[in-house]
Structure formats: C-alpha cells, structure tokens
UniProtKB/TrEMBL annotation:
<dbReference type="InterPro" id="IPR036915">
    <property type="entry name" value="Cyclin-like_sf"/>
</dbReference>
<dbReference type="GO" id="GO:0017025">
    <property type="term" value="F:TBP-class protein binding"/>
</dbReference>
<dbReference type="InterPro" id="IPR013763">
    <property type="entry name" value="Cyclin-like_dom"/>
</dbReference>
<dbReference type="InterPro" id="IPR013137">
    <property type="entry name" value="Znf_TFIIB"/>
</dbReference>
<feature type="repeat" description="1">
    <location>
        <begin position="142"/>
        <end position="225"/>
    </location>
</feature>
<dbReference type="InterPro" id="IPR013150">
    <property type="entry name" value="TFIIB_cyclin"/>
</dbReference>
<feature type="domain" description="TFIIB-type">
    <location>
        <begin position="26"/>
        <end position="56"/>
    </location>
</feature>
<keyword id="KW-0396">Initiation factor</keyword>
<feature type="region of interest" description="Disordered">
    <location>
        <begin position="70"/>
        <end position="94"/>
    </location>
</feature>
<keyword id="KW-0479">Metal-binding</keyword>
<keyword id="KW-0804">Transcription</keyword>
<keyword id="KW-0648">Protein biosynthesis</keyword>
<dbReference type="GO" id="GO:0070897">
    <property type="term" value="P:transcription preinitiation complex assembly"/>
</dbReference>
<dbReference type="InterPro" id="IPR023486">
    <property type="entry name" value="TFIIB_CS"/>
</dbReference>
<dbReference type="InterPro" id="IPR000812">
    <property type="entry name" value="TFIIB"/>
</dbReference>
<feature type="binding site">
    <location>
        <position position="30"/>
    </location>
    <ligand>
        <name>Zn(2+)</name>
    </ligand>
</feature>
<feature type="region of interest" description="Disordered">
    <location>
        <begin position="1"/>
        <end position="32"/>
    </location>
</feature>
C-alpha cells in the first residue's frame, strides 16, 4: 500500500487561487463603491478614486523629506552613509574595520577568520595612508584630538583646528617645523577664533613641544595663513575658573562687572587676560563673602599668586567696594 498524501485536484487549486485573488482585490477596492484605491503620499492617506472615501490616514511616509528635480540634485541631497568630517585624514570616506573579533551576532570568530580579519585590517590601513602627506595628516589630527580631549575643547574647535592644519600642509608651511608644534598652534588658534581660549601654560601641559616652540610656530602660522585672531577677552576665562572653584553665579556676574569696568578704564591693556580673569574671580569671591584663597585661584588658572596680587591691586584702585586683602 502507498502512504502518500493525496494531491488536491485541479479544481480545488483553482478555487484557492480565485479566493486569494478576491481577498487581494478587497484590499485594493473601496468598501463603499468598490472603486479603485490610490495612495496620496503627500497627505499620507489612502482614498478611493471614484467616491473620495478616505480608507486610511496618518500613514508613515518612508521617503525623503527633501525634493529633487534632477539626478545631480538628488545625489547632492542624499545622506547615505556617515557624514564627512575634517577630523579624519580621509574625511571619513574610507572603510573602517573594527578591532573586535566578533561577527554581526556577537559570536567570536574562529582562528582562521581572525587571521583573515587581521590581514584585512593591515591592508586597509596601508591603503588609507598611501603617501607621506596622508601619514603626516593622520598623525597631526590624532594629536589635535588628543590635546582637545585633555583640554575639554568642543567638536567645533577640533574641526576648525583640522582645517587650519590642512591649510598649513597644503601651503607647504611644515618644512623645518615639527608636526606636533604645528598641530598645537592650529588648535590654539582655533580655540581663540571660536571664543573658547586656553592659556599657553595649559597647552604646554598637554603638548609634546616646548612653550617657546609653540608660540613661535603659532605666530608663523597666523602670519602666513592670514588668520583673524582677536585678542583674548578676560571674560572668556571667567566661567571656567568659577566652575572649577565651585563658586556660584553671583561671583561670575561680579567678576564680569569688574573686568568691564577695568576695560573701560583701560587697565586691561597690555595685561595677561588669564591673570586679569583670575584676579577678578578672586576679588568677586571676596565681594560676595565666599572664601577662596589666592593659591586656589592660581592653581586653577595656572598662574602665580604674585600675578593675582598685582592684578588684584589694580582692580582695587577702580573703587569697586571695600575688598578684603
């Protein structure tokens, strides 16, 4: 005897096909007049072509939110892939192979697969830095990112510093100067341009070059590239000093008022902005009855107590109240 399952007759198969066709027609037909349904992508609705009945509304629009009228405009507006960035030597356009030896499901790779991935990483790294210029740029941008992280500088400053270094490299300003020196000068200039300055001593603490070389390279880069760098405003240092000393907003307001008065009286001319800001914070803390010592302010601002005392006495002469020495 044969235990095979009997096959459905052609008539049964025909009825099944007809029922599937009818159910499909029901989803594309209007439930009121059996007219044809169309999708209005602009309003996110499914309506009947004949009677105008709205069958579905608030549909999800899975298309782009922009319009394009030719292929070139469509390609320029497309946002497929990661955004480009000046903080990477290849602007982030190359392939990046992760260091984890795991597959997409989180499972560990076999020994043969690990060896294969290591060879791919090696060749990928060689193709990413094909010449000395790219290797130079990669090392410099790594230095900029390292120093910016240590100084707590935002992404905008890092991007600007990367652009400045690229300009210096394109205009052949690096011969005779170290990569670290030009990178430090570019980051210092970018921080000044975006009103987020740091003192030279702070840069010297995280840089791999001496302070003298850094200042010399900075002046050369600014002069050759024609960078517009305004003199640092002492008020730009106040919020950071107040935050590090755990003082309140009242101290910050009073310190800003002292610095504005000193600026109007032309006391700030030729003075270090860091020293003026530290002295203003110290004076403002005393005016608001908050205890802070000159050594604490000097440690935060990375300047000597002598500088704070000298600038503090100059602020005293402006007659801004009875300050306690």
């Amino acid at each position: 005897m044969s235990n095979s399952t009997p096959r459905p007759s052609p008539t049964v198969r025909q009825h099944e096909t007809e029922s599937e066709t009818e159910s499909a027609d029901e989803t594309t037909r209007c439930p009121e007049c059996s007219g044809q349904l169309i999708t209005d992508d602009e309003h996110g609705e499914t309506v009947c072509r004949e009677c105008g009945l709205v069958v579905e509304s608030d549909e999800i629009d899975r298309g782009p939110e922009w319009r394009a009228f030719d292929s070139a405009e469509r390609d320029s507006k497309s946002r497929v892939g990661a955004p480009t960035t000046n903080m990477m030597h290849d602007k982030g356009l190359s392939t990046n192979i992760g260091w984890q030896d795991k597959d997409a499901y989180g499972k560990s790779l076999s020994s043969n697969q690990r060896q294969k991935m290591q060879r791919l990483r090696t060749w990928n790294e060689r193709f990413r830095t094909r010449d000395s210029k790219e290797r130079n740029l990669k090392q410099a941008l790594g230095e900029i990112d390292r120093m910016a992280s240590a100084l707590g500088l935002p992404k905008a400053v890092r991007e600007t510093a990367s652009v400045i270094y690229r300009r210096a490299l394109d205009e052949d300003l690096l011969p005779g100067r170290s990569i670290e020196g030009v990178a430090t000068a570019a980051l210092y200039a970018a921080a000044r341009q975006l009103n987020n300055p740091r003192s030279l001593d702070e840069f010297a603490a995280v840089s791999r070059v001496e302070k003298m070389e850094m200042t010399r390279t900075y002046r050369y880069i600014v002069r050759q590239l024609g960078l517009e760098v305004k003199p640092a405003d002492p008020e730009q240092y106040v919020p950071r000093f107040v935050s590090r000393l755990d003082l309140n907003e009242e101290v910050e307001r009073e310190a800003r008022a002292l610095l504005r008065a000193a600026k109007d009286a032309a006391v700030t001319s030729g003075k270090s902005p860091v020293g003026l800001a530290a002295a203003a914070v110290y004076a403002a803390a005393l005016l608001t009855n908050q205890k802070v010592t000159q050594s604490q302010v000097g440690e935060v601002a990375d300047i000597s107590e002598v500088t704070i005392r000298n600038r503090y006495k100059e602020l005293l002469e402006l007659d801004h109240g009875e300050l306690v020495q």
